[in-house]
# Entry
Amino acid sequence: MVDACPPPAAFGELCKLLFIKIQDEKTPRKKGQPYEFQIKTHEPSRKLADRIKAIYEQAKAKDPQVFTDTIRIDDATLRTLVSHMEAISFSKTDLDTKGVAFEQFMDDFFKGDFGQYFTPREIIDFAVEMTCPKADDIVLDPACGSGGFLLYALDYVRRGASEYHTPDSIDHYTHWHDFAQKNLFGIEINDEIARVAKMNMILHDDGHSNIVGEDALERVERIRKTTGNNGFKVNAFTLILTNPPFGAQIALTEHPYLHDFELGKQEDNKGKSKPRKNQKTEILFIERIHQFLKPGVGRAAVVLPDGILTNSSLQYVRDFLLQRFQLLAVVSLPQTAFSHFGAGVKASLVFLRRRAEDEIPNDTEAIFMTAPEKIGYDATGRKCGNDLPEVAQQYRAFMKNPKPFFV
# Structure
């Protein structure tokens, strides 16, 4: 068995075997030469395990960003998993099939305590359709979880490549593959989940190299230093797609970076600014998203709890948001939108554009607002009607002639 561990860690162990299997399929071999990821005739479990682990160590050395620890599966369990996987060719399985299988598997794992790491595909797909990523967009999810937003952005650009290049041509491949390798960035505070996100992207033919395990609210220069990735810069990203964690408190005593945030401060009774003792994560993420976006053109789709939009005590947050962003659309999600994944917070999907440095908010700016009743699944996760594709069409029409809109 896998050593006792939470579901994401167990899922991570399975991802290690997927990683080995894919690397084995990619290894050049002569015609008729057998693959290594299979059980050989009369091969004892220990010998199989030693060979699989040796392959893993070689693959890990070639791509150390994905996994850093050892395989923690006992020999008998490893043999069973290899027996189920050896006949499957991931390189010959189409992307849609791999995507559905991986998402269905994650759906079983990321519920309850781990629901925060998995956003329903219908909401992700809708956010991507609303923002229409392009191959020259620099895309970030600062709370990327299992990588859903990044994956759907990649698939959107991949589908769009056919509008510019002949399918199966080198130019078609370069169009989306360069985007995957150079323009997709993710930050995930949980290292196990970050590895799952990388594996998810590898299954979809890359895009994992800029996913890092780090606290997205840390000082940006620290993120660059600890990850060794210089792509994480302020004022750099043209599109952010994210569902940040809700409700957790960031305490100044544990996270000194809190006083770096404007929303991490408050005025005392003398009108002087002082650090707050704590602040909610979703509020700090609003400011971090603003910092990461490119002024004037950077846009974002963010899941936010409705309290930020309606709570009278959070007026200062709304003031910050409206001063720094143009509010493009607010799509109020049903109360049950995240119930299937263990969260009951009423939330909205908010679409924003970062204002230019000298841009002054305009009171005549129209905001697209709607509250779809059906979003593709019910409170139990069962499939049902979906109003979101129609909402996306309405939004595109709205953007051609912005004027007050509410359904």
Remarks:
- The longest helix spans residues 7-26.
- The two ends are 52 Å apart (CA to CA).
